Amino acid sequence: MEQAMSQLLQAYEKGKLSRRALLQGLALVAVGSAPVDAAGFRSDGINHVSLYVTDMTKSAAFYDRVFGAKITKRDGSTLVEFGKGRLVIRPGKPVGVVDHFAVGVGEKLDKAAVTADLKASGATAYAEGNELRVKDPDGFPIQLSAY
Fold this sequence. Notes:
With about 150 residues, the protein is α+β, with helices and mostly antiparallel strands. Helix content is about 30%, strand content about 35%. The chain has two domains: about 1-30; about 30-145, Roll (2,3-Dihydroxybiphenyl 1,2-Dioxygenase, domain 1), CATH 3.10.180. The protein is globular, with a radius of gyration of 16 Å. The two termini are about 25 Å apart. The protein has helices at about 1-15, 20-30, 55-65, 110-120, and strands spanning about 35-40, 40-45, 45-55, 70-75, 75-80, 85-90, 100-105, 125-130, 130-135, 140-145.
């Protein structure tokens, strides 16, 4: 994992990757990483990465056939599970773009407590539907999610 992260950072430093591409790559590499502490709550890794695709059925069949992933269809998206790693595929454009990633915060998401912790650390949480999100300094959306 360290080598992949190092290669991504080198590409970014040489101007071959945008900040957004760097974040997307690091998010994908970090799936399954060790828990980290952030603010007053404990982040336990990347919960999922969300990817835009042209055809969810075709993409799900690919991940099942090629990687043996567990496929779960949901309303408007499909969950693709690789052991502990999870990918959410959904229709959208531009295709192949990570539209967000989710940081896991344990078994239960206490929205009020997490919102207060984020505010104390200088970040502003916002609701999108029933989800809690925060944006990084460049405006990239990060969802906070319970497992």
